[in-house]
Amino acid sequence: MPIEILMPALSPTMEEGTLAKWLVKEGDTVSSGDLLAEIETDKATMEFEAVDDGVIGKIMIPEGSANVKVNTVIAVLLAEGESASDIGAVKAAPAAAAPAAPATASAPASAPAAAKASDGARVFASPLARRIAADKGLDLSGITGSGPHGRIVKADVEGATAGPAKAAPVVTAAPVAAAAPTGPSSDMVARMYEGREYIEIPLNGMRKTIAARLTEAKQTIPHFYLRREIKLDALMAFRADLNKKLASRDVKLSVNDFIIKACAMALQAVPEANAVWAGDKVLQMKASDVAVAVAIEGGLFTPVLKDADTKSLSALSAEMKDLAARARDRKLAPHEYQGGSFAISNLGMMGIENFDAVINPPHGGILAVGAGIKKPVVGDDNQITIATVMSVTLSVDHRVIDGAVGAKFLGAIVDNLEQPLTMLA
Question: Catalytic: 335?
Answer without folding.
Answer: no
